[in-house]
Amino acid sequence: MQLNHYNTNFNKRTFPITIICENVTNAPNIGSLFRTADAFGIEKIVFCGEQIPLGRKMTKTSRATEKVVPFEVKENASETVSQYKEAGYHLVALEITSESTSIHTSNFPKEKPIAIVIGDENFGVSQDILKQCDAVLHIDMFGQNSSMNVVQAATIALYEITKQISCEGRSF
Known about the structure:
The chain is an alpha/beta fold. It has one domain: 3-Layer(aba) Sandwich (Alpha/beta knot), CATH 3.40.1280. Helix content is 31%, strand content 20%. A seven-stranded parallel beta sheet has the order 3-2-1-6-4-7-5, sandwiched between helices. Helix 1 (27-39) runs parallel beside helix 2 (56-62) and helix 1 (27-39) packs parallel to helix 5. 34% of the residues are buried.
């Protein structure tokens, strides 16, 4: 029998993970991020930028998850990342660079909350923010394309991180 929203028995859990979005401004992507954050039990989403579309186009994709996932909107992404660094978060940028490492070979710290920084749909994570992060990670890709949709990448990263955290028996 196929399960639905009413008869699944997944254990609800919140992980000490925050997603920081640097100029992610596509309404369907924002809606999808809410769904992904809800699915993986993420603590919070922080949208950084001047024009974050949180209206009808976003809610069409989010399927009401914006009502259950805590979020805030900040203007300056660099200042936001600095605040999370000062608060003791392990900062991870999701970006392909000449010095990035594969997310699949990364071990996430057991003793710190984690903030994942994702970037602008066209330009990625800025150099200023990359310099502030503890790690710059990429997802190994095997086709011709050198990038993927920001929400797809975030979903893969959250799967890997929550898998590691769950297996380590962290009790947040």
